[in-house]
Amino acid sequence: MEGSKVENGSSSEGRPPNPLAGAYWQCFSHNDGVPVLCKKSLVRHPSLMKTKTSDIKVEPGVQAEEFESKFIPVVRSGAWADIGSRPSMEDVYVCVDNFMHDYGLKNRTDGPSAFYGVFDGHGGKHAADFACFHLPKFIIENEDFPRDIERVVTSAFFHTDTAFEEACTLDATLASGTTALTALLIGRLLVVANAGDCRAVLCRRGKAIEMSRDHKPICGKEKQRIEASGGFVYDGYLNGQLNVARALGDWHMEGMKGRDGGPLSAEPEFMTAKLTEDDEFLIIGCDGIWEVFMSQNAVDFARRRLQEHNDPATCSKDLVDEALKRKSGDNLAVVVVCFQPQPPPNLIAPRSRVQRSFSAEGLRELQSFLDDLKT
């Protein structure tokens, strides 16, 4: 599909469909051999009826500017992935620079509509493949999109999670889990949804702005939620088994999830920002990247590379290659999204005006020196 890119693994029969196939991005039915776009309505899963919009916790993000900016982002993206030191690849990413157009919707907003995601699988790649394929479709098929974005995206996360449970009941070999981090750009509004330990970092005039919070079981809020849901944290792991507190899938793991909830949550947290002229690019990476990069360090590194070649795809590869040099021990996947056509500008720090003065002791020493010259 023009304007979109996905990195995924192959699938065999009975497993999630291969997203590199022609039917990956759009659902087709066939009438006398002629493909016809399916206009399927989104069926609300029963589990979603238990989650009221008022119950969804929204993590406040970067606040909008007080003035109304006329800035319109010019979107360019690229991505790169590497198996790293692991025996198999379980990371998946997706880049869609023209989300509504590529999914057959008319863009009714000023500026771009774009969708990006990184899915870090564990216990196999099937959950990551499944989420990468289904989650954007659940978003675009929701009749409330793009009006109520946070509720629509939350619904898509839950739909993907329960749909994967149903797929696993039909084929037990699919059993696995995945973290999920998505970024939606509608006009100037950037909405990041996270369930897991992938991370999104915005570069605002050279400064790193974290657009997600790592969901580790040892984090205070997550530990409280886990224990309130009947789980426990042992040696940094949820129920002694998972090192993430939120994920899609993992329905096969006893004590993790149920239709009435559980310690492992699929509910995303949100951070939002209204982009301005100062916003340069966004980095989305799996936890293998953040094992060896601090957020500001990654922004500094990516900024220098973009100043050299101004290519988000090459910049993504640069980040992955550098993570490998720094001995990251995990699969690696990175998406870089630029919001300007030109490379990041050089930042010139203003010179501080330093007032210099002699101390009293210094003046005495100088006077003594001058007196010695007279004698």
From TrEMBL:
Top EC class for this record: hydrolase
PPM-type phosphatase domain location: 76-339
Pfam families registered for this protein in UniProt: PP2C
EC number(s) given by UniProt: 3.1.3.16
Record's catalysed reaction(s): O-phospho-L-threonyl-[protein] + H2O = L-threonyl-[protein] + phosphate; O-phospho-L-seryl-[protein] + H2O = L-seryl-[protein] + phosphate
GO-annotated cellular components: cytoplasm; nucleus
Necessary cofactors: Mn(2+); Mg(2+)
Domain of life: Eukaryota
Record-linked InterPro entries: PP2C, PP2C_BS, PPM-type-like_dom_sf, PPM-type_phosphatase-like_dom
PANTHER family to which the protein is assigned, alphabetical: PROTEIN PHOSPHATASE 2C (PTHR13832), PROTEIN PHOSPHATASE 2C 22-RELATED (PTHR13832:SF790)
Protein family membership: Belongs to the PP2C family.
Protein name according to UniProt: protein-serine/threonine phosphatase
Organism per entry: Prunus avium
